[in-house]
Amino acid sequence: MPSPRRTEVGAGSPHLYFLDTNLIVYALGRSPQALPETQALERAARVIVQAIGAGRLQAVTSLVVLQELIYLLRRWARRGAGPQMPSPQRVVADVIALCQAVYTPTLAELTGALAGYKQKQQDFNDRLIAQAMRAQGIRQIVTADRGFTRIKGIRRLDPPALAAQLEEAS
User: What pTM was estimated for this model as a whole?
Assistant: First the structure.
């Protein structure tokens, strides 16, 4: 498995997208009994991942996202919940291969995320992701998490809306 790397990949590029954990989870899911909204997110996530794989979009992510994926996949496997998914090792290897960079949080980013953190009002990992994005000049995150709309300087891209744009353009 390639080692995570911190690189300057088109920082500030309008076609560089940060992938959040939930996008990857939705791309893995194929639950016919899921709610229609969930099915729409799953379909949109697969369209986006396919566009990245085809080179139509550039994507990056963070070790924070990979750690969350491992945690979720392990938890679901232990409980026997969630759709049948590949092993965490396989998912992480696929995400690393898909992304142009996997950013490692720095001490400065951790400190920045802690500044003003309110445990009951905010998700700490979201703050840490936002700090990494700012440090790399990345402004767009593809996520179903509406909490990112409240983070200054970060533009949240709704997966179904982005997938629709990609389908129109092809």
Answer: 0.86
